[in-house]
TrEMBL record:
Keywords: Glycoprotein, Ion transport, Membrane, Neurotransmitter biosynthesis, Sodium, Sodium transport, Symport, Transmembrane, Transmembrane helix, Transport. It holds the Pfam family SSF. It is a multi-pass membrane protein. Residues 570-590 are annotated as: Disordered. PROSITE patterns: NA_SOLUT_SYMP_3. This is High affinity choline transporter 1. It catalyses: choline(out) + n Na(+)(out) = choline(in) + n Na(+)(in). One of its GO terms (cellular component) is presynaptic membrane. It is found in: Presynaptic cell membrane. Homooligomerizes at cell surface. Interacts with SEC14L1; may regulate SLC5A7. The chain crosses the membrane at residues 7-27, 85-105, 131-159, 165-184, 191-209, 240-259, 271-296, 333-358, 379-400, 406-428, 435-451, 493-513. One of its GO terms (molecular function) is choline:sodium symporter activity. GO terms for biological process: acetylcholine biosynthetic process; neuromuscular synaptic transmission; synaptic transmission, cholinergic.
Amino acid sequence: MAIHIEGVAAIVIFYLLILIVGIWAAWKNKNSGVEEGTDRSETIMVGGRDIGLFVGAFTMTATWVGGGYINGTAEYVYLPGYGLAWAQAPFGYAMSLVLGGLFFAKPMRSRGYVTMLDPFQQIYGKRMGGLLFIPALMGEIFWSAAILSALGATLSVIVDININMSVIISALIAIFYTLVGGVYSVAYTDVVQLFCIFVGLWISVPFALSNPAVADIGVTAVKELYQDPWLGEIDSSDKWMWADNFCLLMLGGIPWQVYFQRVLSASSATYAQVLSFLAAFGCIVMAVPSVLIGAIGASTDWNQTSYGSVPPMQKDESEMILPIVLQHLCPPYVSFFGLGAVSAAVMSSADSSILSASSMFARNIYQLAFRQSASDSEIVWVMRITIFVFGALATAMALLTGTVYGLWYLSSDLVYVIIFPQLISVLFVRGTNTYGSVAGYVFGLILRIGGGEPYLKLPPFIYYPGWYINKKVHHTTQEVEYLVVQKFPFKTMSMLASFLGNVAFSYLFKYLFESGKLSAKYDFLDAVVAKHSAEIMDRTTLVNRNIIGLDEMAPVRPRLSVTLASTFSRKETLTEEEESSPESPSHENE
């Protein structure tokens, strides 16, 4: 196998640059939060909550702008029958960030939470928090595995080096600087990585456009030349499926720890909102070169290129259209620079996902569910171990599992249909409880899994209106597959059913217990009768709701440890706003 020295050199330079920036960021901020008395574990998760506007805007944009984003956008613009009309990620994720900034960033940041799961455990208890951790963890791990898998395929297109080795080295670098510097290393490397993506791709675009094999993309946008026009169109029969997928991106893009990791590390609630809006603009801007590269791929006479007469689509290589354009339509030195940009994009996504997964495990599972008395140094070591374990798991899946994209699609759907309605309930709907949360979880899970998942060859057991069987022929192997396609917007329907189930069952059980129709001894989740427990509600909440007087505060003995009872208390919440949640979870001044 031939090795392209220039390509390897370009990748080494990019990786060294990112590694150096990651280590520098860790050294620069090693004492952050010490003066304020912030725990070291919390500093790793959310820094000293002092991420400023410049770094914050870049790292918030990097929430979704990564390897999968730029590769996927180019792929859908290129694909005949889809085109720009179906490239929903740029506008979907941009709208996700706008909605996150408008409605979710301020309450989450001003209440001083450390992870996305904190409000769930505060209102619904530690057991429900553990259940909600499962789809959240699956989403982060499978996302990391999917983009690492994409990196291996990308590198193999342009540089003939061992795919396994390139993926392992990339993952090790991301794991190392995340271990060293936590959220600071992730944030500062995001600045470098987004700069690399933007410059690397924009340098490549003019060379690809000027290639003799490429027709005028303005003409191929509306007229069929080598394939269908790349603008694409939405058939009337597909409009509900299009809307379902768009809602999945727009609303399902909110309840991810990778997003709230940035929100909660911002220097104030207002800054968190501003950063979300800036990142939405950044998502659109960063998608432009990918859209152009996809359009270039659709406008190319591949017979005139070194790629060969058979276009990528007929070789089942549409997902690699971006690196294929870089290699076959650009000079070698330009394609290698673009390759560095793509590999940098992958690491910008992988590092934050791995940190997010380890943060949720260390805090919400290990500390709050099992070891409330754990020391700060113990939590730090748990985080370090899980960063390595989750990173190794994502890498192994990228190398060994052929269905990693299918796993990520399914897990991201579960985040949408399960966690998003629960997040709305816990932040904005007064009176929901653990019984409703469990019911909503089950409803969403059954209705989504019931619709099947073609990427995993998971057959449906619920056939929604408008379903049909699609015949898919693999061009390389001539293998024929028959897949059930659900045109009904069942993902959004599952999400709404999960939300309504949560609210309905919460109020049902509240009525049954409070009216005496069900005995208090059956409140086994301590969600209604025992709602004054320290696990569900802190003492300040009881005072604010006039359930207990200030003079009664002294003898109160929380059932859980002081560490857990004060976990959700943050001094800054009292200075920013006294905003009420569904259970009015104000925070006591320690």
